[in-house]
Design a protein that fits this description.
This protein has 96 residues and is mainly α. The chain is built from six helices and no strands. It has helices spanning 8-23, 28-35, 39-47, 54-63, 68-76, 84-87. The N and C termini lie far apart (37 Å).
Length: 96
């Protein structure tokens, strides 16, 4: 299985993360601050210049106040609308 930034599933993930961010009315800078990363980090994974590993994916989901399992489920069922767990706001968890 070749690694690619241009597979349909990777492009769907990029779009999904951007869609959730916008639904939360967050800017790329807002998410970057929550992740303690530069804004370019968010721009690169949303724009397809960079892939996320699984730990980064979970951290991004948490920064977006979204259940990572719901995001993965939506990625696997691309023809379905965003589930309520992604559309609605979750309480923000703080790191210890």
């Amino acid at each position: 299985m070749p690694k690619s930034l241009r597979t349909p599933r990777q492009e769907r993930l990029q779009a999904l993360l951007a869609q959730v961010r916008k639904a939360r009315k967050l800017t790329q800078s807002d998410v970057a601050k929550r992740l303690d990363r530069p804004q370019s980090f968010v721009a690169k994974y949303e724009g397809g210049e960079r892939r996320l590993d699984v730990v980064e994916f979970v951290e991004v989901a948490e920064a977006l106040e979204t259940d990572p399992c719901a995001l993965l489920s939506n990625l696997l069922h691309a023809d379905e609308p965003l589930p309520p767990a992604i559309q609605g706001r979750r309480p923000r968890r703080t790191r210890a």
